[in-house]
Write a structure and sequence with these properties.
mainly beta; 1 helix; elongated
Length: 355
């Protein structure tokens, strides 16, 4: 008889044990254990075995396959969700090929659909998580757990639950992100009980980079004649490796509703030069991290440009008047000098004698 025991260590949750008494099998391994906290799959070899591999399948689909260490354990290279059930397959050779599969069933007895869990980070400082709350049964009591380190199993409970008017837990709020030292995927788990029975749980592995929600930057505008420089600041983010954002500008001419332009692919810079004609414009901006799909909201529109064409004839007129005035002064001076010379040097008239 071969006993297969799978241990799921939830730390703050009760330790759940799944045991299955197998029929007599001619297998060279026994005592299979799975520590979900350390991600270690182990077994005892009762015969010489070699070329042992470990395979993880979820919903009958291959997740990954890896070689065993010293043919008696496997360190799972990445973490995946387990609430929907998982198959652990150990294969190898001991004179002939052997294969052992243990199915960890879907957790929970109540209902057939799972709650969705999602989280959002705001202002690079706090995080809110929520989950779908079932309408029935009404007495369901939810708990939310998360992992302290990336790519590990949950080991901490929500520090600050949010409740609905009926007093049910519907979300979890984090005042800061000190419990998440880097942005790689963390394990989030929602479970619940109703009348002492565990309902179907839901879990997910979420990268903090994927769930950041940014505020759109404020745009400052400086125009010289008909050229304007639009500038903004880099948004606050949990990622600190410089400007890793891209931006879009939406520019609208107020007097011409048919004129609307979106400027794409502004990357790794915080300014944009834009040529305008006379009239008033508005500009809005939104942003996202490079290679990520979620855009921020558009900012509030800001006005720039001149409503009325500036009259440039006045400087020309003033210049012409200055030239005319200067010429008048010169002519007056010359006339006055000619008059003085006439007084000093009288005009001599010559009388021509007749021949």
């Amino acid at each position: 008889m071969a006993d297969v025991i799978i241990l799921l260590s939830f730390s703050m949750l009760p330790i759940l044990a799944y045991s299955q008494i197998q029929k007599e099998e001619d297998l060279p391994i026994k005592n299979i254990t799975i520590d979900m906290k350390t991600m270690l799959l182990r077994w005892t070899n009762v015969e010489n075995v070699n070329n042992v591999t470990c395979t993880v399948k979820i919903l009958s689909k291959l997740v990954y396959k890896m070689e065993a260490i010293n043919n008696h354990r496997c360190n799972m290279k990445s973490f995946h969700t387990w609430c929907q059930g998982v198959d652990f397959v150990i294969e190898g050779f001991s004179g002939k090929r052997f294969s052992k599969t243990f199915h960890l069933p879907q957790r929970g007895e109540e209902g057939t659909t799972k709650e969705n869990v999602s989280c959002e980070i705001h202002d690079a400082n706090f995080m809110d998580c929520k989950w779908t709350v079932r309408k029935t049964p009404g007495d369901i009591h939810y708990q939310f757990f998360y992992s302290q380190s990336p790519l590990t199993f949950v080991d901490r409970e929500c520090p600050n639950y949010k409740t609905d008017p009926e007093g049910r837990r519907v979300g979890c709020h984090f005042d800061n992100l000190s419990g998440f030292p880097n942005p790689y995927p963390y394990h989030f788990l929602v479970t619940g009980t109703s009348n002492g029975r565990e309902v179907q749980c839901t879990d997910d592995n979420i990268s903090l980079w994927d769930i950041e929600i940014f505020k759109p930057p404020n745009v400052t505008i400086n125009c010289t004649n008909l050229r304007c420089r639009l500038q903004w600041q880099i948004p606050k983010t949990i990622q600190v490796q410089g400007n890793v954002f891209e931006y879009q500008l939406q520019i609208q001419k107020i007097a011409d509703k048919n004129f609307s332009e979106v400027v794409f692919n502004i990357k790794k810079t915080t300014n944009y030069d834009y040529a305008i004609s006379y009239g008033k414009y508005t500009v809005k901006i939104r942003t996202r991290k490079l290679f990520y799909k979620n855009w921020s909201e558009w900012s509030e529109p800001q006005e720039f440009g001149d409503e009325v064409r500036k009259d440039n004839s006045l400087p020309v007129i003033m210049s012409l008047l200055g030239i005319a005035f200067t010429m008048l002064l010169i002519m007056g001076y010359l006339c006055k000098r000619y008059y003085v010379l006439q007084k000093i040097i009288p005009t001599v008239f010559y009388i021509r004698r007749p021949s």
